[in-house]
Amino acid sequence: MRQHARRTILHADLDAFFAAVEQRDHPEWRGKPVIVGAAPDCRGVVCAASYEARRFGVRSAMPACQAGALCPDGVFVRPDMKRYREASRAVFACFDLFTPIVEPLSIDEAFLDVTGSQRLFGDGRIIAQRLKQMVRDRTGLVVSVGVAPNKFLAKLAGELEKPDGLVVTPFDPDNIRKFLAPLPVAALWGAGPATVNRLQRNGLHKIGDIQKITETALRAIVGEHAALHFKALAQGHDRREVARDHVPEKSISRETTFAGDCRDTATVARVIGRLADEVGTRLRRRGLYASTAMVKIRFKGFQTVTRRRRLARPCHDDATLREEALAVLRTIPLQKPVRLVGFGTTDLDSRCQWQPTLFDPQDETNARRERLSQSVDVVRARFGPEAIQRAAIRESE
Predict the structure, then answer these.
(1) Of 22, 109, 278, 323, which residue is the catalytic one?
(2) Helices 389-396 and 265-286 sit at what angle, rounded to 10 degrees?
(3) Which of 1, 100, 261, 271 has its Cα between 20 and 30 A from that of 390?
(4) pLDDT surpassing 70 at residue 115
(5) pLDDT tens digit string along 332-389?
(6) Alpha-carbon span 281 to 278, nearest angstrom
(7) What is the chain's Cα-based Rg?
(8) C-alpha–C-alpha distance, residues 241 and 244, integer Å
(9) Hey, what domains does the chain have and what are their CATH numbers?
(10) Cα–Cα distance between 15 and 292 in angstroms, integer?
């Protein structure tokens, strides 16, 4: 009787991706602490840090000035997203040679279901070894790979021995539980800082502790849904399938950091309007409509306030997005100097979930705004993004 291949999932994650591309393309930077992001004497944050820089305590999303203080001899590089996207496409082309079932998680990370590929290429470990070598040979980059019977375990394994890691988890239930038992509860998918703190306050520090506690007792600590979720993960259970091809975007946003703390509310409003234009352009390019608008304000001292607003109907035109952005902004007291502003949209859908009627003037307004925004896209595509930006900002005031 023919035996079916056991389910095998790979989690592939490029190590310090942006910084690795820079080191690959600039041999003189190899072995040196490379920090991709803003310069240390400018406003902005770190986008990525090489492992040499991480030894100094530099991390992604850290203010660039702090990174400069921790690593004064670091090589600070402005991001080059075009090159990074090209490198990403080359890596994903390698993934596609081993399986058609690839789920991108980001520009540098993906799940691969290689269950049906094992007869051709070998077991999960062999496929991972071949994949790592192919990526290195074809792109000059290093990828860490976790091999497991499900997505949770594969991602966990892929992060255990970075950089240049290859970890294969057990596949039988008893050894999976033994593998998980000594790991911290923070390794559980969905366990954020607040949840981890709550678990630890109740004496639950390792996944093995979650395995031992009763579901009833755990429910009293984290609630029914989380208790069921964590108990399943602690046993190594995860039923999620690897989704083929593109994963729909959950949000689209833009943000910018002022060169100096901004005290002028009119300037903040103008910048929010510009960001709303940029988000609208990205929504239309992707054929998406947004149902929720979000404004982010970071004040001097790094206090951050985020406000959301549900839209009356899904949209992707610039005028409506600017109106909603400014309406949300008015709910945030600007009593301190502003360091950073952001605008984003969530609850995205590829369909506009409302139908125009014959007699509603608002429907005609919305349709006219969509046509106007599409015309703006054509002009900007031909003459550049700055072609009519000033008019858009004046209209938002």
Answers:
(1) 109
(2) 120
(3) 261
(4) yes
(5) 999 899 999 999 998 887 655 444 444 444 455 666 666 766 666 665 555 555 555 5
(6) 5
(7) 24
(8) 9
(9) 1-169 (3.30.70.270), 175-234 (1.10.150.20), 251-396 (3.30.1490.100)
(10) 34
Using CA atoms, how far apart are residues 183 and 170, in angstroms rounded to an integer?
14
DSSP code at position 71: -
Cα distance between residue 238 and residue 221, in whole Å: 22
Clarify whether 324 is annotated catalytic. no
Q: Which residue has the tokens 């703006």?
A: 376
Encoded tokens for 366: 């919305």
Provide the residue count of the chain.
397
Residue type, 229: H
Whether the predicted model's global pTM rises above the 0.85 cut: no
Place of tokens 């240049």: 164
Phi, psi of 295 (to 5 degrees): -120, 140
Percent above pLDDT 90 for the chain: 62
| Residue 378: per-residue pLDDT | 61
